[in-house]
Specification:
Blueprint (H helix, E strand, L loop, with lengths): L8 H26 L1 H6 L3 H11 L2 H17 L6 H15 L5 H15 L2 H4 L24 E4 L6 H10 L10 H16 L9 E5 L3 E3 L2 E10 L2 E11 L5 E3 L3 E2 H8 L14 H11 L5 H7 L3 H17 L6 E2 L8 E6 L2 E8 L11 H13 L10 E9 L5 H10 L4 E4 L8 E11 L2 E2 H11 L4 H23 L2 E2 L8 E3 L5 E3 L6 E2 L4 E2 L8 H5 L11 E2 L4 H5 L3 H11 L5 H12 L20
Parallel strand pairs: 19-20
Antiparallel strand pairs: 1-2, 2-4, 3-4, 4-5, 5-6, 5-7, 8-9, 9-10, 10-13, 11-13, 12-13, 14-16, 15-18, 16-17
Helix pairs in contact: 1-4, 1-5, 1-6, 4-6, 8-9, 12-13, 16-17, 17-20
The structure holds adenosine-5'-triphosphate.
GO molecular function: [isocitrate dehydrogenase (NADP+)] kinase activity; hydrolase activity
Keywords: ATP-binding, Cytoplasm, Glyoxylate bypass, Hydrolase, Kinase, Nucleotide-binding, Protein phosphatase, Serine/threonine-protein kinase, Transferase, Tricarboxylic acid cycle
InterPro entries: AceK_kinase (IPR046855), AceK_regulatory (IPR046854), Isocitrate_DH_AceK (IPR010452)
Length: about 600
């Protein structure tokens, strides 16, 4: 297989053009991310959201651009295997000393799979695993990946001040010494009365993390063998001056900040793998694919996820099964018990009350991907042509797909290794959660006298209402608010995952139920009033949601306003007036001054 000689000048030209294509992509991606700082400084919130949305499209545009060029200039798709093998080797050569080799390899995979027929590139041409290491890549630029500061207890305040000033934010703080004093107190509390060791230091990533109306300093405090990850959110106060809003500590706070249910950060990074490595040291349990995703490098996230999935298959023996819970009407959902994700296919057939189509459902999922997910909507990875071993499927799953989504299924020995494979045309993959109906049922089963179960119901109903309120503030009407459409995460957060009926709040009409005018209307079991396609009657939510008395009691105590049309209408009007809501990826009690 390995070519003995690199004797094709054309192969070099193709590799070079491919590399130019990637470099252009990363340059554009990076400068868009870098501009987030200016948008933050000038409070351009709509611009920030637009850029977050548009940046998602960059990758596919550049892949298309590059394959068109390769086709036009080199007829690359028609070249033989010998040329393509040399292209790959030249490309590897060009990656030596490159600062984003792992992303460039993925770009190579995207372009080649787009240009070459599947049977042609079976794993010989693409990078099935990295060929070039990302370890110890150094930055020749002025700005290193992270900066280290060496305070003593006496100089901690002054050092923190310097650390903040080094970010060179072009907007005044309301009172930086006041904020620094709060951070200092929080750091000291975190450290406790321990002896400061020789290596005592603070390391911070040199790029700020921007998202929505916030900027975040991310770093860690190191003392001896102890490491304390932290993040400092910087916001604008009511007068538009900067404030440090909180000091977040520990892996759990970081995981909430970097959650899969939030929009991607904008960070100006020369060496993304070094950022990932640093962030991984702050959150050792978070898979690298999710960290790449959180940084907006979604394609790399997808690549790594797929490699993780294949590796998991090799080191496990359980089977894909129908996901626990109430089956979806439009989505067919399966999972593998040992793997914490679910796989969701759009069905070919759904009941008549679901007046939708594959295209419309895909558009809703895309809407969610591009929207700020405010910690309340699960992110999805979208794949086409996923091949999984047939032997690893329960027959019930195959029967279900054959019945409801036959257009999505092919069973064949595609890679000619003697094993049957299930090839799924199109699938969304997302983090598995505990469906809220199952979570509640477990508490109901424990009985009303069980204090823990009652507390569990109270907490999760409160969380459920908060989830809806966060979605509302972000201009999302979930459509179908039944318990089964929400999941509970490892951190006890309630997250929405059923997107087929989602709408922008600003597109909905929130109406009061009309009063019946005649006895006939009053007694009618049917809906006697006219209902437009975007009409919503919040007063009707109760009967669907609040059958259980414990649930009802908790809901009415915390969230009765969700049953009032005026609540929804007021939010709609605020959003229409251009207001961009603050989203806090941490609890209010973590804020230094919640009233600010
Ligand atoms: N992320 C997830 N984690 C765990 N279970 C999930 C997840 N997503 C979906 N499920 C399970 O699959 C079922 C169907 O999923 P989903 O609600 O997305 O489908 P749907 O067809 O849109 O539903 P509906 O019929 O309400 O429109 C859920 O009720 C739940 O039991």
């Amino acid at each position: 297989m390995f070519p003995q000689r690199l004797d094709s000048p054309l192969a070099y030209e193709i590799a070079k053009a491919m590399m130019d294509g990637f470099n252009r992509h990363y340059r554009l991606f990076r400068s868009e991310s870098a501009r987030a700082k200016h948008r933050f400084e000038t409070a351009d919130w709509h611009g920030q959201q637009r850029a977050q949305r548009e940046r998602i499209e960059f990758y596919d545009l550049r892949v298309r651009e590059c394959s068109t060029r390769l086709e036009r200039e080199f007829k690359a798709g028609e070249q033989g295997m010998d040329v393509w093998q040399q292209v790959k080797l030249h490309y590897i050569g060009l990656l030596v000393d490159h600062h984003q080799p792992e992303l460039a390899e993925t770009f190579f995979n995207s372009v080649t799979t787009k240009m070459l027929h599947r049977s042609y590139f079976q794993n010989d041409f693409i990078f099935v695993r990295p060929a070039v290491s990302t370890e110890y890549i150094e930055n020749a630029e002025q700005r290193p990946t992270y900066r280290a500061y060496y305070p003593t207890r006496a100089t901690l305040g002054a050092v923190l001040l310097q650390l903040l000033q080094d970010f060179d934010l072009q907007r005044a703080f309301a009172d930086l010494p006041r904020d620094i004093a709060c951070v200092q107190a929080a750091l000291q509390q975190q450290l406790g009365e321990v002896t400061l060791r020789a290596n005592f230091q603070i390391q911070v990533l040199s790029g700020l993390f921007f998202r929505n109306k916030g900027a975040y300093v991310c770093g860690k405090l190191i003392n001896g063998f102890q490491e304390h990850p932290f993040a400092l959110p910087i916001l604008h106060d009511a007068e538009g001056r900067l404030v440090i809003d909180a000091a977040l500590f520990g892996e759990d706070d970081m995981l909430l900040l970097f959650s899969f249910a939030r929009a991607y950060f904008m960070v100006d990074m020369e060496i993304p793998s070094a950022y990932v490595q640093f962030l991984r040291s702050m959150m050792p349990r978070k898979p690298r694919n999710e960290i790449y995703n959180a940084l907006g490098l979604a394609k790399q996230g997808k690549t790594l996820f797929y490699r993780d999935l294949l590796q998991h298959q090799r080191h496990s023996s359980d089977k894909f099964r129908i996901a626990p819970g109430i089956k979806g009407m439009v989505m067919l959902v399966f999972d593998m018990p040992s793997f914490p994700y679910v796989f969701k296919l759009i069905k070919d057939y759904y009941p008549p009350q679901k007046d939708t189509s594959r295209e419309q459902i895909k558009a809703k999922y895309l809407l969610v991907k591009q929207h700020d997910r405010v910690g309340r909507m699960a992110d999805t990875l979208e794949y086409s042509g996923v091949a999984l071993p047939r032997a690893r499927f329960d027959d019930a799953v195959i029967a279900e797909i054959e019945k409801f989504a036959p257009s999505q299924l092919e069973i064949s020995d595609r890679d000619a290794d003697g094993q049957q494979e299930v090839v799924i045309q199109h699938v969304y993959i997302e983090r598995r959660m505990i469906p809220l109906n199952i979570y509640l049922q477990e508490a109901f089963d424990a009985g009303p006298d069980d204090r823990r179960a009652r507390a569990q119901i109270e907490r999760v109903v409160l969380e459920y209402g908060n989830a809806i309120k966060d979605l509302v503030a972000a201009n999302i009407f979930p459509g179908d608010m039944l318990w089964k459409n929400f999941g509970v995460t490892r951190h006890g957060k309630v997250v929405f995952y059923d997107y087929d009926e989602i709408e922008y709040l600003t597109d909905c009409n929130f109406r009061k139920l009309p009063q019946p005018r005649t006895e006939e209307e009053e007694m009618s079991g049917e809906i006697w009033y006219k209902v437009g396609p975007k009409d919503v009657f919040p007063e009707t939510f109760g009967p669907f949601l609040l059958g259980n008395p414990l649930v009802r009691e908790a809901f009415m105590r915390h969230h009765a306003e969700l049953l009032e049309p005026s609540f929804w209408q007021a939010h709609k009007e605020r959003i229409q007036a251009g207001y961009v809501h603050d989203v806090f990826p941490y609890e209010q009690d973590k804020r230094f001054n919640p009233g600010r």
